[in-house]
Amino acid sequence: MLGLMQDWPLLIHRVIDHAAIQHGGREIVSRSVEGPIRRTTYAKARHQALRIAQRLSREGIRAGDRIATMAWNTDRHFQLWYGITGIGAVCHTLNPRLFEDQIAWIVAHAEDRLLFADLTFIPLLERLQDRLPSIERFVVMTDAAHMPQTTLRGAIDLESWLDGADGDMRWASFDENTAAGLCYTSGTTGSPKGVLYSHRSNVLHAMAALQPDSLGFSARDSVLPVVPLFHANSWSIAYSAPMAGAKLVMPGARLDGASIHQLLEEEQVSITAAVPTVWLGLLNHLDATKGALTSLKRVVIGGSACPRAMIEAFERRFGVEVLHAWGMTETSPLGTVCSIKPAYAGLEGDALLDIKARQGHAPFTVEMKITDDEGRPLPWDGHTFGRLMVRGPAVAASYMRGDGGDILDDEGFFDTGDVATIDEHGYMAITDRSKDVIKSGGEWISSIELENLAMGHPDVHEAAVIGIAHPKWDERPLLVIVPKPGRSPTKEDMLAFMTGKIAKWWLPDAVALVEAIPHTATGKIQKTALREMFQDYHFKT
Ligand code: ADP
Question: Which CATH superfamily is domain 365-433 in?
């Protein structure tokens, strides 16, 4: 027997419709790429999105076509997301920080037809356009007054392109499983793979993100996503903020500590989200300027492990609650968020910090398990670690064009490539990426745990740990440090600081000081490049 309720497909444009109807006057504030702050509202943004949808249809764009964007977080980019998906086309966010070869490869693989780009990326695209044959024309996300001379194919500024589109049209209607967004993994682990989100997966993922123990936005929040729209679906924020009616503050191209601080204060932001490197920048800026955070209540930190010292700084010095989160492109991306369940509500001080440094528990829609190399489930005891596997309606079932083959196990779980523990209360803690754990004498050492610990030393700006071949133990940890200006911590300093806080056999065998640690396009420590830097390194015997 079927239920007798209405058929109301979970389509993304229902989100912007809802925001326009219920929260129509709520603002979207953007630092424009041209410079000044631009203000619009959800009602106006919906109208702009409809104009984009209308204009795309006139351009001959059809359901299923891929439309690329290479853009910062701004109102224009936000409106493009809704305009493109509103006719059943697929919004493909390109990560401008990838290598040029990768960008050319990805555009060809996706067969993108149009490319919408911010002014910032014109030089890059002019260099690259001969290698992007599928792109019929480039639309520059600016107005006629700011449009520069460019050799880009068919180039036109967005506002002129929209001339004559009055927005008098309806969204298309189609199956909720229709593709909506395309985002390639950064290829930290091989050639990039396309993750193809559906309308349904994006709506469910955003609703999951709105649960109070996840991001939990309300209509009273002012939300600043520093995390880019072009990286892993902006952690749902382009959907969850309008769903809740929260004010949206978009940082444009300026992601340095001073610029972010200015927006946080001027727009009275209550919740913000980014990777740890962004927060290092903000905390350094606050240190240097003796700045304060007067409106911020919560900061979501994920994408790579959030150092304990960072949680401590936000919570103890600034009174801002840290929500540590874990996820990946393939999980839409939010997989876990570390909010406090009753079991840990009585903890204080360092004991509470220990919990907050974990990656957290899964919201409804995400199921997790940890397994050994043979796929057997491991216990949730907080110390046994194994491969982290996940499943749910917003987890990838396969990659674009079937690349990588069958990616699910017999029970439909996806292997995240991460190694983790889960405790009896369902709190997951990432031990490492499976390729980065250091295998010493048949046992595993977590590079992430050593890094977090080293980051707490006052002379350390950034730290990374890699395994170096060792004749007796297979591999032993090398601690690589970027010191704070004017400091040069020694191996003895670091070992003295770390001793007693971890098992003795985990202590690094050597410490190397460097000027910079290589990062990936998404701001993570690039272990492959770091291992190359140290490929000829030998421990002194
Ligand atoms: P890529 O895989 O291309 O680097 P993703 O953004 O999809 O891009 O990366 C997902 C990976 O980032 C996860 O599998 C995990 O290894 C790491 N990661 C994400 N969040 C955290 C976190 N809070 N702590 C530790 N690692 C994290």
Answer: Luciferase; Domain 3 (2.30.38.10)
